[in-house]
């Protein structure tokens, strides 16, 4: 029996399910969890969705269908069947890791190449553009009705993890067509999820871009461009507004690797990395305790940006 069939079987037998997203939640992890939650809820399953960490849910994600199924982290019951969605490792569950570990049937659904599996049932497909695609397979196996609400949640993961379909595989375009046929407002959700910022975002971006440094000798001479967003911006306009800076920095063709350092509190950083072609970021992220995909990865650290940049230069 394949992993997808096993996940379907587990879900069919569970009277109650806890679904968990990763910390610093994005549209793929939340959309995947809510799509699955909606389908289970309609089938009479007692379902709760937990979002770990201190970061508030970005406004746009709170408007997805099914967001009412999100339960504040302290109120999560923790069912015997637990599912981690889009989490490359158990660490990504942050303060809800105990909820996952306490389950008796722990399911991992993910598409990160760095994910070695940390559940009793691991459904991990690094060839999938997003976790939402894998959830769609599960929903089809489960016999769920992929109506406009479920489709909207899946589309949210698909459109964001493919960078508005820039690097989408043929199969992902086919899935997009199916979701749009189900009634998803594609242009509307794309604007909401990817092209909407608060006014203060412009000043933050100006500040971040002014900080940009090019290090041609880094990554074996393939080059690094990096920028920093300091912690004061988090309080001013919200943590999620800094997530888009990497999409500007990574357009610089002078370097193979683009990195954005985002300070969540003084000296505490989360790092987003992108590579254009030759550099495999998975080992780089793993060396710093993180994970991801060959061309998109990340990690967190406490300390000085200069030290981390120095490690890239000797890499
Ligand atoms: Mn994802």
TrEMBL record:
It comes from the Bacteria. Its EC number is 3.1.3.7. Pfam families: DHH, DHHA1. Keywords: Hydrolase. Residues 226-309 form the DHHA1 domain. GO terms for molecular function: 3'(2'),5'-bisphosphate nucleotidase activity. Residues 17-157 form the DDH domain. This is Bifunctional oligoribonuclease/PAP phosphatase NrnA.
